[in-house]
Fold this sequence. Notes:
Structural class: mainly alpha
Number of strands: 2
Number of domains: 2
Distance between the termini: 37 Å
CATH topology of the largest domain: hpI Integrase, Chain A
Helix content: 40-55%
Strand content: 5-15%
Shape: globular
CATH superfamily of the largest domain: Intergrase catalytic core
Order of helices and strands: HHHHEEHHHHHH
Low-confidence stretches: 1-8
Strand order of the largest sheet: 1-2
CATH architecture of the largest domain: Orthogonal Bundle
Amino acid sequence: MTRIKGQLTTADYLPITEYRRLLQELEKDGLYLWETYCWLSFCTAFRASDVRALRWKDVLGKNELVRTEQKTKKNRLIKFNREVREKNTMLYGQLGNPDTQQYIFANPHTGKPYSLEYINRLLKTYRVKYHLPIKSFSTHTFRKTFGRYVYELMGRSAEALILLNQIFHHSDLETTRRYIGLAQEDIDKVFASIHI
């Protein structure tokens, strides 16, 4: 579904193996800016509005990033491990070492970040081009992919849901369950279990 200004969009999570494949395909095709977008969206778990506002100085060579989220107005502290820092540096180099003061996702004609609508349209083309097994692919997919990755990594535990709830600033655990696709998955299992 393409984002229409003023309307809500839905997004599914991308299985982590497919997320990794997407990064590889974008790199192979020299689409480093959009590889960077997908990477930073995932490893920060930011909403697209916060990712679009990032500048290279915010992420390059940094051990952490402190940001006030645009939607919630709450502060978030993101720690960057060695692998994340190295990938950020590699992507910066692949993009030609741009001015660290500029927006990472700046439209070269305006100097301002690309619009959410533009990014969502672009992601739809990547869904088709790379045969991604996802129905609703949008900027929000990466945040949900992060959530699902953490949930699986932590053994699908209640502790994982509690941590994700805090990271996402959701009002309750049920919101987090729905957000990462667990509620629908549980419903699907009920119907799949019917044997007469």
